[in-house]
Each structure stands twice: as structure tokens, then as C-alpha cells.
Amino acid sequence: MESTLTINNQKYQLERYPKTDDKTLKAWSNAELMVLEYVVKKEAKNIHLFNDRFGFWNCTLNTKKVTTIWNYASQKKAINHNQKLNNLNTDVIYKTPLDSLGKVELALIKIPKSLELFELFLQQVHKASISSTEVVCGFMTKYFSPSLLKIASSYFEVSEQSKAWKKARLLILKKPKEKVNYKIISNKINYNETVFNQYFGVFSSGQIDIGTQFFLQHMKVFSKELKVLDLACGNGVIAHELVNKYPSAEVTLIDDFNLAIASSKLNLKNKKATFICDNNLNNLEDGCFDLVVSNPPFHFEHENNIEIALDLFKGVKRVLNGNGRFLLVANKHLNYKTHLGFLFNKVTVIEENLKFVIYECIS
Ligand SMILES: C[S@@+](CC[C@H](N)C(=O)[O-])C[C@H]1O[C@@H](n2cnc3c(N)ncnc32)[C@H](O)[C@@H]1O
Q1: Mean pLDDT throughout 166-191?
Q2: Ligand 1 mean position, distance from CA 233 (Å)
Q3: How far apart are alpha carbons 259 and 257 in whole angstroms?
Q4: Residue whose CA is closest, atom 20 of ligand 1?
Q5: Distance 298 CA to ligand 1 centre (A)
Q6: CA dist 21 to 76, 154, 350, Å?
Q7: Ligand 1 center to residue 232 CA distance, Å?
């Protein structure tokens, strides 16, 4: 895997966190390189970085005063890892996508897969903009969609696209519009007589995922299963339905994405629940759960990758007590049974349809 690059005569080593065995993946893209090239000589103060997934900009702009808008717990770890690897200052000013931003003169955005999340970013920038604010967005041309321009034009008078370079391109936004009707940055989803809220960018924006619905139809919990983990909780729908059906259960919800956790907090406001934003189970004690339920992740942004799920399964094995159970739903083509069979004593398919399968794993 390519991990070194030289920028303005300075050599950097940048690695992916979590590590991957896929040699084609690296910790930066040509889109991020192009954005850097465009902004590096600018004198702007109040620089804000959005979606700096592995810390490429945090490292290469380390001498400038920047604010990083973070989305993922794993992103913070990646940024810290790469700053240390390059002996750079590790003090980062972090804000979440929901925090107000003060003043933004220059914003750098690696356009995320979720266009709703892109809109949320632009809205936050716009609220903190001055007349000279410039937003430099980078994207790989294969992910271009006309909706990008439509969203951008709701917030900025001027939007210019650069020429493509190595399959990447810039979208540069200037002149914040004077009058903007800000959008409500969360969606409401009706499911099972409940209205679920979820912030822009959280998994399955228009409806409860059909795999999750299939899982919920068949999820059975034993009365002795009191300590339950909803792994990769998204908007928290699985935990919500579980505590509604089994009120004595005490649920912990974990997700890598801070807006997933923020959405879950809204949806389980009055429930006995603990919320954790993290990308693994390392901070949870051995054997502390009776049951783990999950619709685990198998893609990250535009990348399909089951490595993350397989790592999470190892964590599940460790945090389940001796008689614990792991119930999960997955797309059939992922063929998790073999992987689960290496970890758990017994793996049973308890339901399946044309697209999904529900496994029960006994620890
Ligand atoms: C398939 S979605 C399921 C969401 C929710 N449980 C549902 O059924 O609607 C997977 C979730 O995994 C989260 N995720 C991705 N990587 C993760 C990781 N390493 N640790 C915890 N959550 C992760 C994503 O943010 C996403 O919310």
C-alpha cells in the first residue's frame, strides 16, 4: 500500500486507520491533494476542515491554525496516528457537524458520499461565513452528481468547477448568498407507530433499512438477557424496539459516527440507555453483555469492505458472557457464516429471505 508522499519538499508518511489488508487503499485521494494544492499558499485565517478522513490535511497544513469538523471516532484516531507518525503537533481543535463554527474564512471539504451530509456542512459554513468566505470542495469525478451543484447553489452565488486532474476535480464556492432558508438538518421516519429522528448522513435516510426491518420482525430476546449491546446502532432503531418490547433490558448503543449517536440519543431520550461513539469494543469489559444485536457495517463511504465487520465480531466474542448470544442481520452475499464459525461455538441461521439472513451465534 502506498503510504509516503512528498509535498513542497516535505516527506509525509500517511497510514489508514483502521489498518486494511486491501493494498489498493491509501490514506489520501487525488481530490484531497488537489484541494491542498489550491489552498496551500492562501493566507486565510479561520480555516475549517471537513471530512479529513485520515488526517491528510491535518498533517500537511499542520503549521496553520485549523479547526477540524469530525464525524467518526475512527477519524480522530487516524488523524492522531498520522500526526504522531510524522512528528507533528497533535493538538487539534475539534468541532462536531452540529457545533456552530464562529467565523469561517476558508473551508476545505472532501465531498462525502451522503449529499445530505454535504448540505449540512455547507449550511454550517454558510451560517459562519463572511462575504469573502471561500469553500474548496474536492471529489473524484466518478462520484459527481448534478445534485452537488444544486445544493451548492442554495448557499453560494458563485460555484466554479476546475478541470479534472487524475480523475479528481474541485468545486469552488464563493459569495455566500444573503438570504438562505436553512433546512432542518434531520429527517423523520415513521416506523411501527414511532417517529424516528435522524441527522443528515446517518445510515438509511428515507426509511428504516429493509434488512433492519426483517431483523426486527424476527428478533427474540430471552427474559434473562438484561445487558444488551446494539452494535453499529445508526439511529438506534434496533435498541429502541428492543427496550419497547423488553423494558427490563438495559441497552448500550455504539457507533463510529457522531451523528448516529446524536440521533440515537434523540430516539431513546427517556430510555435506560448508554451511548458510546467509538469504532471498536476495546473500551468495554470482557463478558459484560448477555446479548449483542447488530446490522453491522460493510461499506464505508464509497468503499465496500468487510474487514471492519470482522474486527467487530472479534470484539463481540470478547464482550459476551459465557452463555451470551450475538444476533445479526446481513446481506446474504457477504457469507458471514464461515467467519462467525471461526469465532463462536455455534452459528445458526434463524431466518432468511431472498436478500438477508439472520444469524444467531452462541458464544
Ligand atoms: C448498516 S448500518 C446499521 C445502522 C442501524 N443499526 C440500523 O439498523 O439502521 C451500520 C452502522 O455502522 C456504523 N459503523 C461503521 N463502522 C463502524 C465501526 N467501526 N464501529 C461502530 N459502528 C460503525 C455506521 O456509522 C452505521 O451507522
Answers
A1: 97
A2: 6
A3: 6
A4: 279
A5: 9
A6: 21, 41, 31
A7: 3
Percent of the chain with pLDDT over 70: 100
Q: Please give the distance, rounded to the nearest whole angstrom, from the Cα atom of residue 41 to the centre of ligand 1.
A: 38
Instruction: Enter the C-alpha cell of residue 286.
Output: 470482557
Instruction: Report residues whose beta carbon is within 6 angstroms of any ligand 1 atom.
Output: 74, 203-204, 209, 212, 232-235, 237-238, 254-257, 260, 279, 295, 297, 308, 312
Residue 299: which pLDDT band, with cuts at 50, 70 and 90? confident
Contacts of 240 (CB under 8 A, 6+ apart): 194, 196, 267, 268, 271
Pocket test residue of 189, 205, 256, 265 for ligand 1, highest count of atoms within 8 A of CB: 256
3-state secondary structure 200-261: CCCCCCCCCCHHHHHHHHHCCCCCCCCEEEEECCCCCHHHHHHHHHCCCCEEEEEECEHHHH
Residues 159 and 268 in one domain: no
Confidence of residue 349 (pLDDT cuts 50, 70, 90): very high
Q: Is residue 132 domain-resident?
A: yes
Give me ligand 1 centre to Cα 139, in Å: 24
Whose alpha carbon is nearest atom 25 of ligand 1? 257
Which pLDDT belongs to residue 301? 82
Among residues 149, 176, 203, the one where a domain terminates is: 176
Given 3-state DSSP classes, what are the helix, strand and coil percentages for the chain, each rounded to the nearest 5? Answer: 30, 35, 40
Decide: 139 and 171 in contact? Cβ < 8 Å: yes
Q: Which atom of ligand 1 is nearest to the CA of 311?
A: 19
- Distance from residue 234's CA to the centre of ligand 1 (Å): 5
**Residue 163 domain boundaries:** 4-176
CATH number at residue 20: 3.40.50.150
pLDDT at 305: 82
Q: How many domains does the chain have?
A: 2
Least confident of 126-135, 178-187, 268-277, 293-302: 293-302
